[in-house]
Amino acid sequence: MSDASNGKARLVAVLRVRTHAKRGIATGVVFAIAAYAVFVFGRASALGQVLYLSLLAVLALTTGAVVTTVLVGIEAYRLARESDNPAPGETEQ
After folding, report:
1. Please, what's the b/e burial string for 2-35 (b: 16 or more CB within 10 A of its CB; e: otherwise)?
2. Staple 71 to which of 8, 13, 20, 80, CB 3.0 to 4.6 Å?
């Protein structure tokens, strides 16, 4: 069982999932704040603004998840292309 978790940990490290997750969540939060400022702030009643804050949490998390998925996918694609085209002088095992 520890071999499987060790392999998963190595995969997460190689794909830099933690770094991409931080960037994705930051992007989601900034996007949600911008959406709130543009569409809600000053236009809705106090109750409406509170309700929109819960929707913005969903927007931030969803955007963060999508951005993270795209960044990890790009990283995986880049690593796959590197393994398909080894540098000159490297031999495949």
Report:
1. eeeeeeeeeeeeebebeebbeebbebbbebbeeb
2. 20
3-state secondary structure of 78: helix
pLDDT one digit per residue (tens) for the chain, 93 residues: 566 678 889 989 999 999 999 999 999 999 999 999 888 877 878 888 888 889 999 999 999 999 999 999 999 999 999 887 766 666 555
Task: Report DSSP state, residue 44.
Answer: S
Q: Are 63 and 27 in contact (CB under 8 A)?
A: yes
AA letter at 3: D
